Amino acid sequence: MNIVLLSGGSGKRLWPLSNDMRSKQFIKIFKTKDGSYESMVQRVYRQICSVDADAAVTIATSKSQVSAIHNQLGENVGISVEPCRRDTFPAIALAAAYLHDVRGVAEDEAVVVCPVDPYVEEDYFQALQELGRRAAESEAHLVLMGIEPTYPSAKYGYIIPEGKDQISRVAMFKEKPAEETAREYIDQGALWNGGVFAFRLGYVLQRAHELIEFTDYQDLFDRYDSLKKISFDYAVVEHEQQIEVMRFAGMWKDMGTWNTLTEAMESSSIGKAILNEHCMNVHVVNELNVPVLCMGLKDMVVAASPEGILVSDKAQSSYIKPYVDEIDQQIMFAEKSWGSFRVIDIEEGSMTIKVTLNPGHAMNYHSHALRDEVWTVVDGKGRTIVDGEERQVNAGDVIQMPAGVPHTIVADTKLQVVEVQIGSEISVHDKVKIELPVSR
Amino acid sequence: MNIVLLSGGSGKRLWPLSNDMRSKQFIKIFKTKDGSYESMVQRVYRQICSVDADAAVTIATSKSQVSAIHNQLGENVGISVEPCRRDTFPAIALAAAYLHDVRGVAEDEAVVVCPVDPYVEEDYFQALQELGRRAAESEAHLVLMGIEPTYPSAKYGYIIPEGKDQISRVAMFKEKPAEETAREYIDQGALWNGGVFAFRLGYVLQRAHELIEFTDYQDLFDRYDSLKKISFDYAVVEHEQQIEVMRFAGMWKDMGTWNTLTEAMESSSIGKAILNEHCMNVHVVNELNVPVLCMGLKDMVVAASPEGILVSDKAQSSYIKPYVDEIDQQIMFAEKSWGSFRVIDIEEGSMTIKVTLNPGHAMNYHSHALRDEVWTVVDGKGRTIVDGEERQVNAGDVIQMPAGVPHTIVADTKLQVVEVQIGSEISVHDKVKIELPVSR
After folding, report:
1. Are B58 and B81 in contact (CB under 8 A)?
2. What value of ipTM does the predicted structure carry?
3. If DSSP codes are grouped into helix, strand and coil, which group holds residue A261?
4. B291:A308 CB<8 A
C-alpha cells in the first residue's frame, strides 16, 4: 500500500504540550504494551507497518516538522516537504509528484491519503488497504472512506451515499451542519467525511498538471511558494463525478482537543500526578519532573510542560486557541533531527539549555556572532570539534566556545550536555552554518 | 517594645510554595506599595517597625530557618535559635534566656510573644504595645490578647473573660470546640485565643528555672535536645491564676491554609497567569517563569513552584497535608544566608542548579568527596577561591572544581552562577567545610 499521511498544523489546541515547534501529533501520550509512551504519529506508523509490513509511507508536512518526524520514526520514512503551507491540494499534488518522480511509483498504482491524527485501531488500516485495492480496480477516480456516525456531530462534513452497500457511489457532500441537520443526514444514511481517500496516482497527477503549470517534482517544489492556497475538496472533489464511498464502522476518534484526547487516555494520568479521592473525570498529563497534586476536581484536564500549565474544565478546553495565541512565550522545548533541547533557565544576558543528542547524531557545524557558549557534558560519550580541533568528551568535560568560533558535537552514545549561552542578544537567528574542514 | 515572634513549622499545608526548607512565612505573596511582593515575616517585621521604630524584635525559630530570616530581614534581627524542635514552652524559655543574657533585657521589662504568621494591620501591633504596657504594670503575671470572634470557628481555642471591659481577668480557657459549642461560648462573651501574650521577663525566667535545671542561656541551649516537649499553655498558663485578657477587635486572619491565604491576596493571581472569563473565585500563585492558563474553574486555587503544582478546590485544600507527606521530592528551591539556589535539571549522575548570591556574601569554603562541580558565571562580578587560589570572575567565566578540591565564591555584586554537579552519588550531605587559609 502507498499511503500519504497529511501531517499539518501548529496544534495550539493542545497547548502546553503542543507549540509552534511541536504539533499535537508528536506528543507522546499513548501507552504502548511495554509501558512507554508513543505519539499519534508513532502510533499510526506502527499500526500501518503491523497491517502491511511493505507499506510505502510518505508523510506530507512542512519543513518545521521534518526533525521531529525523523526523531520519532527514524530516517527511513518518506517525507514530502512542503516549502511553505499552501492547503491540501498543493500538498497532495506535491506528494503525488514526489511518489512518481522520487519514489518511482507507477501511475496506475493506488495511493491512500489520510490525516496523521485520528485515534484508530488496526481495522482502520485494513480498511485503508481495501480502499486502495478498490481505487486500483474501480472505474471511479476517487474512493472515499465514509465513517459510520456514532452521534450527530456538527464538527464533520457528511457524505450521502446513493445506496446502503459497503461500497456505493456518492450522491452528495454536505458541509458541517448544525446538530439538528446532522440528525436528518444520518437518518438519510449519511457518513462522516474523515478526509480519507484513495486514487490511482496518474489521476491526481493529471489534475495537478491541469491546474498547475509544472514539469516534475523538483519544479513543483521550486515554485511551491507561488501556488495559490486551495483545498483538495474544492480543487478536485467538487468537480469529480466518478466518486465512490466505502463504509467504515470501526473505532475512529478525532484527537483535536484536550476533551477528545483525554478520552483516548488509558489511565487518568501520565507523568507524576496525585489525584485525591474527590477527583472525578480528571485527566493529568505532566511532562515536568515535579508532581501535580489534584484535590476535589471535577471534569477537568491539567497539562504541564516546559511551555506552561493548563488547568481547564474539559468542555471549556475546546476554546483554548485564542488564549494561547496571545501567549508570547520563548520556545522551551524542541525536537531536532539530532535529538532535543529544553530551556532550563532564562536570565537577562544568558540562557541555559539542556541538550540531548541521539547516538550517532551531530549538530551542524556552526558559530554565533553575539554569544559565547559553554558546554558541560553531563552524560555519555562523544566528540567536539571547536575551530577545527577534534576532542573526545565524557561526563564532566567542559568546552568553551567564544563568539565567532565554529563548533559542533557528535554523539557516540546518547549524549547529554548543559549549554550556557552568554551574550546581550541571544536569538535563534544568530547562527551561521559552516562547512566542516575537508579533511573530515 | 520587646517582641518575640514564634516562627515554626515546615508549612506543608501551603505546598508547593512551602517545603521542608521554606516555611509558609517566607513565601512572598503580599503585594507592597511599590508593586513588589513580601512574605508574612517581612510584612509583620515591617509593620512592627512602622508602629515602634525602637522595637527589639527576636525571632524564635529552628536552625533551618536562620538563613531564610537573614535573607529576608537582614542581619540585624535578633534570632533565638532552637537547636531542635521542643514545643512552645522550651522555645519561649530559651528566647527569654536569650533576651536576658544575650540582649541584656531587664527582668522587669515586658516581653510580648506572638506567632509570626497572622495576617493583620498596624492596629494589631498598636494593641501589642498596649499588651506590653499592661504586662509591665499589672499585678497579673500574664496578659493575653483575646480576639473578638467574627464567626463560631472550630479552629481556635476560646478565652472566657470575667467581664466585658477592655481588660479583665480570665474566667476560663476552652479547647477548640465544635461549631455549636463555639456559638454558645461567643454568646457568653468568649474571645479567640490567638496565642498572643505578654509578661514581665522575670516571670517566665522564674517559671523556666522551676521546671528546667539550667544556669544561663548558653547552658539551656546546650541541654536543649534533652528537654521534654511541652506547650507553654500546658506548662505555664494552666497553672497560673493571675491572668488577664485584653480585647482586640481589629482585623486578624490566620494564614494557615490555601483557603485563608488566598482571602488575603489583593488580586486573583501572582506571577504569569491567564484566567478566562468563565473562572469564578479562582486564585493563582505561579512562581515559575512559564504561564498558567485557567479555563472555566470555580472556587479553586492553583499554585506552581519549582517543587510541584497544586490544583485544588479551595475547601479541599485544607486537607493537603497527608498527600504532601507522601511526596518524596528532591528540594528544588532553598533560601540560604548568602542567597538562594534552584535545581534546574536532574539526571542520573548529574544535577544542575542555578545559584544566586547576594552582594557581599559568600558560600562557606568547602569541598565534596564524590562529585566534580563546574560553575559558569551568568551574571555579576565576584571572586572564586579554588584550592587557595583567588580569581576575579565575570559573566562567561568557567571554574572547574574536581572532587576533593576546596572552593568558594564571593559576590561583589549580585552574582548568578549555573553549577553543574557530576558524580555517581550526589547528596547534600557530601560537603566538608574547610577553614580558609589564614593569609585571607
Report:
1. no
2. 0.81
3. helix
4. yes
